[in-house]
Design brief:
It is a single chain. It contains nine helices and seven strands; from the N terminus they run E-H-E-H-H-E-E-H-H-E-E-H-H-H-E-H. Strands 2-5-1-6-7 form a five-stranded parallel beta sheet, with helices on both faces. The chain is globular. The chain has two domains: 120 residues, P-loop containing nucleotide triphosphate hydrolases (Rossmann fold, 3-Layer(aba) Sandwich), CATH 3.40.50.300; 61 residues, no CATH class. The chain is 56% helix and 15% strand. It is of the alpha/beta class. Bound molecules: dephospho coenzyme A (COD) and adenosine-5'-triphosphate. Adenosine-5'-triphosphate binds next to helix 1, helix 6 and helix 9. It catalyses: 3'-dephospho-CoA + ATP = ADP + CoA + H(+). Keywords: ATP-binding, Coenzyme A biosynthesis, Cytoplasm, Kinase, Nucleotide-binding, Transferase. It comes from Pseudotamlana carrageenivorans. One of its GO terms (molecular function) is dephospho-CoA kinase activity. Catalyzes the phosphorylation of the 3'-hydroxyl group of dephosphocoenzyme A to form coenzyme A.
């Protein structure tokens, strides 16, 4: 079973691209979603997060995401501590998930991959990219957010240029139909590579 990392900056279109691979029959692991489930369901993670941020880290309905986002994307010390708590648990969960999949390859969609060395455990890496103004426009449309919040997150991620240098494939996600054509080509190339 080969592991393909799918990454990209905030709003680049990772989930959109991941869904295209899913439609081609590739098992998809969305690290962001699984991390949130784990943070809500694992008592160990919950305790560690409360120790770091205090009781306000959780509300009745679960993780207090705006509260945590407001801290970690403004203060890298907290971001690093949060990553150190959450990322190993997500990796463990992913490793168990992989064992249950039956396909030539799986995709792990993850916002933070190169930043924490996660690319080293991938057989291939795909980076999704789009112009910065387009990413911001899409995020303002999708979320109740601000340009300031988006830029704070961008500052905590590698630039597209740095990611592209280390990637095996790049998806330029501007026009959806063209994105799909690129996805199809990459899918065929990965499958072709696996035969040898
Ligand atoms: C801060 C949290 C609660 C905010 O949740 P919320 O639903 O509001 O936003 P979402 O998860 O969609 O994140 C928004 C964007 O922030 C970026 N982002 C998320 N985590 C990180 C991080 N650790 N470092 C840099 N950017 C990040 C991503 O581009 C993401 O698309 C959440 O992002 C979080 O818990 N992040 C830390 C844990 C983590 O690294 N998760 C990523 C998967 S392993
Ligand atoms: N090619 C495209 N054309 C038009 N809209 C798009 C395109 N790609 C993505 N979008 C829209 O832009 C928004 C962001 O895309 P998506 O959620 O896939 O990005 P993401 O990289 O997964 O985001 P995040 O970093 O926040 O997790 C979504 O509302 C999505 O529907």
């Amino acid at each position: 079973m080969k592991i393909v990392g799918l990454t990209g900056g905030i709003g680049s279109g990772k989930t959109t691209v991941a869904k295209m691979f899913k439609d081609l029959g590739v098992p998809i692991y969305i690290a962001d979603d699984e991390a949130k489930k784990l943070m809500n369901e694992s008592p160990v993670l919950r305790d560690e997060i409360i120790q770091l941020f205090g009781d306000s880290a959780y509300l009745n309905e679960g993780l207090n995401r705006p509260f945590i986002a407001n801290i970690i994307f403004r203060d890298k010390t907290y971001l690093d501590k949060m990553n150190a708590i959450v990322h190993p648990k997500v990796s463990e969960h992913f490793d168990k998930w992989v064992l249950k999949q039956k396909a030539p390859y799986v995709i792990k969609e993850v916002a933070i991959l190169f930043e924490n060395g996660g690319h080293q455990s991938c057989d291939f890496v795909i980076s999704v990219t789009a112009p910065k103004d387009l990413k911001i426009k899409r995020l303002l449309n999708r979320d109740d957010t601000t340009i300031e919040k988006i830029e704070n997150i961008m500052k905590n991620q590698w630039s597209d240029e740095e990611k592209i240098k280390l990637s095996d494939f790049v998806v330029f996600n501007t026009v959806l139909e063209e994105t799909y054509t690129q996805v199809l080509k990459i899918h065929k190339e990965i499958l072709g590579n696996l035969k040898f």
